[in-house]
Each structure stands twice: as structure tokens, then as C-alpha cells.
């Protein structure tokens, strides 16, 4: 009974909001016959701009201009590069922990699983979760682009250190390796793993926003697919299965990919402190020049 009651709560809220949601101006005018209310609703959306009679720009026409296309490339490529490294590591944290000796193959199965779980929990609680909350509190103060650039820059540096000093750190300071790996997870989330979701929902005109966001997200998932299927094969190059012989070089490759994400971010405009209407108006004014 309790379970059934709780599952109906979202439906109740949905019905309430739907009943109180204003109708479109076209429906208000043509079906309800309330021309004045339709005009007020339309004015609330468009302000003083009169869009009636203007020629509608197509997707191809809009993104046929380099200044608009580079924004789409920026959101798509930065998301693509991010997800290669993010999913390559996040889905394979246990491999990394094993490779540095945190989880020993000589342990009993239960002890090995427990040790890996503790390691993953430390990384999540110390890196992933705080990173998200830092973004929540600072995104309107620092701006999306600044956070994304900072995240990509820090990740580039961290992966360079992990790659070049892998064996030295592995032999002398496993705790340092875990700390750096945790810091990487922190800057994934106080960085591009959050902003790559936010920026495509703001930087495009309303008419193309959902399509452009979909293209950006699909690019990210393509990177995730590459990482998911390629990471395990890549880290085993040059050694026997389970040795993870190519892991240091893989981390070096990730540093280069993060640097590419850093560069493509410069194609994306900042949206801090702007409403969607302001952003759309700026784009339209720019297209008229």
C-alpha cells in the first residue's frame, strides 16, 4: 500500500502542473477566442520583438555560417573528448586500483571485492560528489566556460603526472596515486562533466536548441562507446592479459585528449548571467551583421 501510494505522487504533480500550464497563444486565440490573452501571452514570450512575417531560418542556413557552426563543434567535440577519458576511467576504476597494487590478486575473492569497493567509495566520496556540488554553488559566479577550461586544464596536468610518474608512484606511494586519481574525478565533475551538459542547453537559438543539444550529447556518447570497448584492449597492449602493461601510456593519451577538450572549449560563448531570451537575441543580432 505504501509503495503504491508513493508511486502516484509524481503523477499527481504532473497532472496538477499540466492543468495549470498556460496554453499556447495560438490555441488561446483560435480555440478559446480570447485574442487579448493570446496577445499578452505572446508578448510575454517575445517581448517587443515582432516575429510575425519574418522568414524562418533553417538548421542548415544557421549552422552554415562558421560563427554558428564552431559553437556546435565546440559543444560536440568537448563532450566527445570528455567522455572518452571519463568513461574510460570511471567504468574501469577497479582495473586502475588493481594495477597500482591497492587491490591484490592474491586476496580471497570477498576480501578483494571489499578492498576494491572501499577504494571506489573513497574516490566517489572524496572526488566525484564534491566536484558536482562545487559546480552547483560556483557555476553562476565563475561561469560555465571558466569551469570547463579549468577542469580540462587540471585533468591534462593530472594525467601527465600519473602517466610519467606511474611506476615511481606505484612503487613508493600508492596513497598519492589514489589522491591524484581522486583529484581527477573531482575536476571531471567540477569541470566538463557538468558544463558539457549545461552549455548546449543555453548557447543555441530556441528553434535549434533541442537538435543541437542532441547532436552534442550523441557525440559524447560516441566517446563513451569508444572508451567502453577500447579501454580494456588498450591497457593490455605489450603484456599478458591482466598485467595492464599499457596503462601509463593510456593515461598519457587521456592527457592529450583532455587538452583537445580544452582547445575546443574556446569555440563556445559564455552564457553566465544571461537569460535564454538574451542569448537568442544576441545570436539573432549577430546573424544580421
Automatic annotation (TrEMBL):
Compartments reported by the entry: Membrane
Mode of membrane association: Multi-pass membrane protein
MF GO annotations: transmembrane transporter activity
InterPro entries documented for this protein: MFS_dom (IPR020846), MFS_sugar_transport-like (IPR005828), MFS_trans_sf (IPR036259)
Main location: membrane
Gene3D superfamilies per the UniProt record, alphabetical: MFS general substrate transporter like domains
Parts of the chain that traverse the membrane: 71-89, 117-137, 149-167, 173-191, 212-231, 251-268
SUPFAM superfamilies linked: MFS general substrate transporter
Keywords: Membrane, Transmembrane, Transmembrane helix
The Major facilitator superfamily (MFS) profile domain, residue ranges: 1-273
One GO cellular component term: membrane
PANTHER family hit by this protein: SOLUTE CARRIER FAMILY 22 MEMBER (PTHR24064)
Protein name as it appears in the record: MFS general substrate transporter
Source organism of the structure: Basidiobolus meristosporus CBS 931.73
Amino acid at each position: 500500500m505504501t509503495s503504491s501510494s508513493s508511486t502516484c505522487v509524481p503523477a499527481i504533480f504532473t497532472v496538477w502542473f499540466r492543468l495549470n500550464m498556460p496554453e499556447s497563444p495560438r490555441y488561446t486565440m483560435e480555440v478559446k477566442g480570447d485574442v487579448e490573452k493570446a496577445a499578452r501571452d505572446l508578448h510575454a514570450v517575445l517581448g517587443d520583438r515582432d516575429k510575425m512575417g519574418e522568414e524562418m531560418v533553417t538548421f542548415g542556413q544557421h549552422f552554415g555560417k562558421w560563427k554558428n557552426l564552431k559553437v556546435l563543434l565546440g559543444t560536440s567535440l568537448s563532450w566527445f573528448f570528455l567522455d572518452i577519458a571519463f568513461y574510460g576511467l570511471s567504468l574501469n576504476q577497479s582495473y586502475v586500483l588493481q594495477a597500482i597494487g591497492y587491490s591484490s590478486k592474491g586476496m580471497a575473492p570477498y576480501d578483494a571485492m571489499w578492498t576494491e569497493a572501499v577504494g571506489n567509495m573513497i574516490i566517489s566520496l572524496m572526488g566525484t560528489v564534491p566536484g558536482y556540488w562545487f559546480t552547483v554553488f560556483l557555476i553562476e559566479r565563475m561561469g560555465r566556460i571558466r569551469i570547463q577550461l579549468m577542469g580540462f586544464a587540471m585533468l591534462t596536468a593530472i594525467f601527465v603526472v600519473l602517466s610519467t610518474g606511474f611506476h615511481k608512484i606505484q612503487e613508493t606511494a600508492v596513497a598519492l596515486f589514489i589522491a591524484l586519481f581522486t583529484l581527477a574525478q573531482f575536476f571531471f565533475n567540477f569541470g566538463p562533466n557538468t558544463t558539457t551538459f549545461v552549455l548546449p542547453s543555453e548557447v543555441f537559438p530556441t528553434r535549434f536548441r533541442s537538435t543541437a543539444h542532441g547532436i552534442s550529447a550523441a557525440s559524447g556518447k560516441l566517446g563513451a562507446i569508444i572508451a567502453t570497448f577500447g579501454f580494456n584492449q588498450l591497457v593490455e597492449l605489450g603484456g599478458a592479459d591482466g598485467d595492464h602493461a599499457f596503462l601509463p601510456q593510456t593515461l598519457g593519451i587521456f592527457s592529450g585528449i583532455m587538452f583537445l577538450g580544452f582547445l575546443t572549449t574556446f569555440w563556445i560563448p559564455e552564457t553566465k548571467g544571461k537569460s535564454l531570451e538574451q542569448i537568442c537575441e544576441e545570436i539573432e543580432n549577430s546573424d544580421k551583421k
